[in-house]
Amino acid sequence: MGAEAFKGSIDPKVAVDWLKKTECILNQIGYPDDVKFDYVVALLEKDAYDWWLIVPGVVDNTVQLTWNDFLRLFKERYVPIVYQDQKKVEFLMLKQNEG
């Protein structure tokens, strides 16, 4: 299918690129959110998988997590707010230069 494992990264760009590519593949196939969630969790390896195991409710299955929960938790862990804000500013600057 083309989706690659994610082992964890301190570089937010690596995490964002992996998530975008994986999400694109899953959307093209037409998977519903619950299948996306299961599939993407299966792609986590090494540090990323270790992180996932310490997310509250995952191991003991006391919390029913969703695709949107995964996206939020993944970004909280691998994509710092500072990086997200920087990308927003870059996008706005690009839009201003176009207009």
Characterise the protein shown here.
This protein has 99 residues and is mostly helical. It has one domain. The protein has helices at residues 12-29, 33-42, 46-53, 67-78, 81-98. The model has no long low-confidence stretch (mean pLDDT 89). It comes from Linum trigynum.
Tell me the layout of helices and strands.
Elements: H1 12-29, H2 33-42, H3 46-53, H4 67-78, H5 81-98
Comma- or semicolon-separated keywords:
5 helices, mainly alpha
In one word, what is the shape? globular
Q: Into how many domains do the coordinates divide?
A: 1
Give the helix tally: 5
What is the helix/strand order? HHHHH
**Radius of gyration based on Cα positions:** 15 Å
Protein name: Retrotransposon gag domain-containing protein
InterPro entries: OxRdtase_Mopterin-bd_sf
Organism: Linum trigynum
